[in-house]
Amino acid sequence: MRCYCCSSKSFDECCEPFIKGDKHPSSAEQLMRSRFSAYATAHYQYILETYTKEKQQGLSVEDLAQSAQGATWFALKVHPTLAASSVDNSVDSLVGNSVSSTEESSIDSSVHADAKVEAQTNAEAISKPSLKLISKPNNAIVEFTAYYFENKSMYQLHETSNFSVEDGKWRYHDGVLHDDCGKIKYGRNLPCVCGSNKKFKQCCATKSR
What we know:
- With 209 residues, the protein is an alpha+beta fold.
- The protein has a single domain, classed as Nuclear Transport Factor 2, Chain: A (Roll), CATH 3.10.450.50.
- 23% of the residues lie in helices and 24% in strands.
- It has eight helices and six strands; from the N terminus they run H-H-H-H-H-E-H-H-E-H-E-E-E-E.
- About 23% of the residues have low confidence.
């Protein structure tokens, strides 16, 4: 089965070993992808444990499960970012390779803002000027768009996230939500957002039922 994070790998060789604790992500992007897969498979303990220690305070597995209730996460797109590629290569000595990026696919859709998205995903919106790549080798940013269904409607969550290395492991700290978050309209005959090369109606659209 193809991984929930829409990589070219299968789930058991991509995100599952991270979620099960058999391996640790070697980059911020790997952690972000595995956290998406954890949301898709309802592994909220992993999501909690991969926050920074500061952000874990006051959170619980029950909180995370409640925030994601009713959402079916089905596709992920990672955006290339200049900041991500500028991370000091010395991070390799801490956890492995620096942040990579995947090729962005185009989406022709009309987007309507929906404030409920933030609460459902527990994303921590902060002011855009304060979100920046800190000039240290153990920090990185990743920009992504995650897609989900709720009540048979399609939504997207577009976020730029801060990640840090704590105790030799990548951790999610916080992120800023972009203005295009919310409900979207996506043509059923368009290529599926998951990158399967199938039409949307023949692929992920079936997961809305």
